[in-house]
Amino acid sequence: MKINILLTVLFFLLFGIKDIPAQKIGKRIKNAAKQTTEQKAEEKTTEGVSTGIDKGIDAAKSIFKKKKSKSNKNDDEETEGDGMDEAINQPGYKGMDTTNPETATAFGVYTKFTFEPGNKIVFYEDFNQEQLGDFPLNWETNSSGEVVSNSVYEGKWFSLSGRAGYMPATGELPENYTIEFDIVTMGLEKNNAPTSLTLAFLNKKAYSSGAVAGHAFFKMGMSSSAGMYVGNTGPDKTPRIQSSLNRKFKVNTLVHFSVAVNKSRLRVWMEEEKIVDIPSLLVSNLGRYLLFETYGVDRERGHVVLLSNFKIAEAKEDLRSRLLDEGRFSTTGIYFNTDKADIKPESFAIIKSVADYLKENPDVHIQIIGHTDAQGEDSYNLQLSERRAEAVKQALINQFQIEETRITSLGKGESEPVDDNETINGRANNRRVEFIKN
Prior knowledge:
Number of strands: 19
Number of domains: 2
Radius of gyration: 25 Å
Largest sheet: 8 strands, antiparallel
Helix content: 10-25%
Strand content: 25-35%
Mean pLDDT: 78
CATH architecture of the largest domain: Sandwich
Order of helices and strands: HHHEEEEEEEEEEEEEEEHEHEHEHE
Shape: globular
């Protein structure tokens, strides 16, 4: 048998390629080598965090389900970031089918969620425009980092490691703004090292909080025994705050954070729960610049810390004030699952504000208008905007008992942009839901 196989192989070697010119054979070998090299390079960047994701992946797979492949992929996505695998036991990332009263689900634990995002995006980053393996263009650091992907969560993520500072290139921020972001961790379930991620609030640009005279901080301990802390430091002694939070960071899963800065006041929500609310933390103009600082994130030990769906939005007048004074309000803070009209539960606070306004003003009727950015087909964007506007209408009717006769819905697709569709921030501002008082 082995002799027959050997003879067959020799036959093809001697006669199977005799009519192929040597130049073509060389070209085929060269192309094959090139493809192998490119495949290995892509595999390297797809693994992203090298041995870290390999070590953390098994634990994460037990928590998360696979995302089904999508058809007709459109880049008009929700502003908190799209393409993310949904966590099986994470109610904050399961959308609601609000178009059918019989199947409309409740907002669940998010009924206590009071965070309302700002209404003008000044910085948005989901890293989908970045090359795998590169440091993202709109971020700065005193160390290194890279954009990665992995087999557990769709989309691209910014891998943070070592002891480093990472600053979004925003310029000076306004007095009032909101921040939202997702953190994914892997390989930390048995971590006893002093590993942490800190969000620092500075009054000037710096890549280390120790390089400035003072700062405020929200520190997330990422070891099995560490906690979370909030405080401020610096020469201004009035007031000085150092507090330990009675909460633990959730390792080896996806965690959504929402932050509100209102002059000196700092509020932080971990998923649906508000865990920080300090009126006088950001003294001495702290918060004009943001800095993420990692400590002890060791890839060799299997630590993985990933950041994505990062958004900063300027907070202006609240929704009800705008409806009363101007008769219309536009928000980028109602979130949908990718390419769908399923509302995510973290949209609760905005929709509840509309419902409260309508209950307080029983004679008011409103129109809900859905808008998209200019990516994707015009007809598809129009249809998607119509479905999303209708979903918000149904949420008001089914979840908040607003009379159907008081609400109409309309989709305008990409036809009325409010910002530049050529930039990622502009597209994020164009993806919005508008409320108009009739």
